[in-house]
Amino acid sequence: MKKTKTMLTTLAVSVFMMCCALVAQGSANRTYVSSTGSDGNSVSDCQQTAPCRTFQTAIGQTNAGGQVIALDSTGYSGFSVNKSITIQGAPGQVAFIFVGGGFSGITVTGLSTDVIVLRNIFVDGLGVGSTTGLTFNGPSKLVVENCEFKSLTTASA
Amino acid sequence: MDLINSSLYGNTTAVSASGQGSDGSQVNNVNAVTEVRIYGGSIVANGTAFFQTNPGVGFANIFMQTTNGAQTAYTTFMGGNTTFFAGTGTGCGPCSLPVVFFSGSQLK
């Protein structure tokens, strides 16, 4: 009886961990964020009709190889990424990231087979000390296009 | 990392790269893991525009591409930077210039 209980507990833990892993990998090929979005919309994969508020939450809901699109111009908070993905402001819009002291606005750590694209993103340190706009740890491929880095201690490292 | 048509301005250091770079004289071989390649855009009014750490002897880990394989010109506007480039560690003393004319490099 005790052995069966232990096995069931182990099985339950394994199922829970598999579910968590699946959530971390994302479930949509294209996700959206907006100034009026809510991270609570992650339950519906940050769809265009129900966008999320921050890049980090949307990244978590996006499949490897997918896209995160900012629908309007506002701040979307910093983020870390470790898989193939494109993160961009929509044409005509600018996705702002304001960086606080001691922080990096964007941190990229992917595998050598990953391709990460950042486009139309404005990173601002507001002149605060110890700010890094973009930290690239390799070894993934990283393309930064039409972005701005302003008033940071280190813009790109 | 490829930095395309992007602007870096008013930073203490604009572009900082660390780790083994490449020999810019070897066309198609500018592809080290953590190096930075710059195409277009602007680097303006920064304290230091480029800072290289341990690029390796005779190597650089920051590059500016000025043409592609078809010799189409790229222009990166640079002005108002207090220090153009600096660096430290292996290969620096001084570092190789980060501005290298090359074409048709491979994306790494």
Describe the structure.
The complex is a heterodimer of chains A (157) and B (108). Chain A has 157 residues and is of the alpha/beta class. Chain A has one domain (28-156). Helix content of chain A is 19%, strand content 38%. In chain A, the strands form three sheets. In chain A, strands 1-2-5-8-11 form a five-stranded parallel sheet. Chain A has a four-stranded parallel sheet with strand order 3-6-9-12, with no helix packed on it. With 108 residues, chain B is mainly β. Chain B has one domain. Chain B is globular and about 30 Å long.
Layout of helices and strands:
The complex is a heterodimer of chains A (157) and B (108).
Chain A: H1 2-25, E1 28-33, H2 55-60, E2 62-70, E3 74-75, E4 79-81, E5 85-89, E6 95-98, E7 104-108, E8 115-119, E9 121-124, E10 132-136, E11 141-145, E12 148-150, E13 154-156
Parallel strand pairs in A: 1-2, 2-5, 3-6, 4-7, 5-8, 6-9, 7-10, 8-11, 9-12, 10-13
Chain B: E1 2-4, E2 7-9, E3 13-18, E4 36-39, E5 42-44, E6 48-53, E7 62-64, E8 77-79, E9 83-88
Parallel strand pairs in B: 1-4, 2-5, 3-6, 4-7, 5-8, 6-9
Quick structural overview:
The complex is a heterodimer of chains A (157) and B (108). Chain A is α/β, with parallel strands linked by helices.
Overall spatial form of chain A: globular
Summing up helix and strand content along with how strands pair, one would put the structural category of chain B as mainly beta
The helix tally of chain B amounts to: 0
Order of strands in the sheet with the most strands of chain A? 1-2-5-8-11
Strand order of the largest sheet of chain B: 1-4-7
Sketch the topology of chain B as an H/E string, one letter per element.
EEEEEEEEE
Computed Rg of chain A:
18 Å
- Name the average pLDDT of chain A: 89
Q: Judging from the principal axes of the Cα atoms, what is the shape of chain B? A: globular
How many discrete domains of chain B? 1
Rg of chain B, nearest Å: 13 Å
- Count of distinct structural domains of chain A: 1
| Poorly predicted segments of chain B | none
The helix tally of chain A amounts to 2
Oligomer classification:
heterodimer
Distance between the termini of chain B: 8 Å
Distance between the termini of chain A: 57 Å
Give the overall pLDDT of chain B as a whole number: 82
How can the largest sheet of chain A be summarized? 5 strands, parallel
Biggest beta sheet attributes of chain B:
3 strands, parallel
